[in-house]
Amino acid sequence: MIASSYVAPGALRDGVPVRIRAIQPEDREALRWGFTQLSTEAIYHRFFQTKRGLTEEELTYLTELDFKDHVALVVEAEVEGLVHVVGVGRFVRLKAENKADRAEVAFTVGDEFQGRGVGTLLLEHLARIARELGYTAFEAEVLPDNRLMLEVFEHSGLLKRETAQDGVVHVELSLVDGTAGAR
To answer: How would DSSP label each residue in 101-137?
Structure first.
């Protein structure tokens, strides 16, 4: 599988059909628009701060990837007759030498699609790609009140370890057999 051309069909918990695919540079306007549709809470849960928009530099970073050290997928769904990006998931290789086989994973899901399985689909497909690229674990920082994201990790089927650090929940998910925190 070539991650940069990844495409797969899927369905949300309520049966709505979706398409999961690799993010492309052409998605920058969809991300810019989608950001404006997010609630303040959703923005804070993803970026740990409030933001009014995404800068040109951020949009470039979020859409122009190497699909080795930085991989991102979008979920598209039809909304009122038009296809929209309703969620984005990504992983970025950790820089620490002893963690080169691990990646930080993060998600953004449009408010109206939260709790419908978008994050779960993204995690499943990202894990598949990560395994093929030789990654052994995902790590994530999650705010304690972001229960929807914590539930995605809890019900992922991946071996999980959580620790509280500096007001956030540090989650480690194993992509191989064994313990999530083994190092």
So the answer is: TEEEEEEEE-GGGTTTTHHHHHHHHHHHHHHHTT--E
Strands 168-174 and 17-22: unpaired
Pick from 57, 42, 52: nearest CA to 87 = 42
For residue range 56-97, list pLDDT tens digits in order.
999 999 999 999 999 999 999 998 899 999 999 999 999 988
Helix (H) or strand (E) holding 92: strand 82-93
CATH of residue 130's domain is: 3.40.630.30
- Is residue 151 a part of any domain in this protein? no
CB 135, CB 170: distance < 8 Å:
no
pTM for the model: 0.91
CB-based contacts of 135: which residues, under 8 Å, 6+ apart? 91, 93, 101, 102, 103, 175
Residue 82 included in any domain: yes
The residues of the chain scoring below 50 in pLDDT are 179-183
Give the residue numbers spanning the domain of 13: 3-135
What is 60-91 written as a DSSP string?
HHHHS--SSSEEEEEEEEEETTEEEEEEEEEE
Is-contact 167 72, C-beta < 8 A?
A: no
Torsion, CA 111, CA 115, CA 117, CA 120, rounded to 10? 100
CA distance 23 to 89: 9
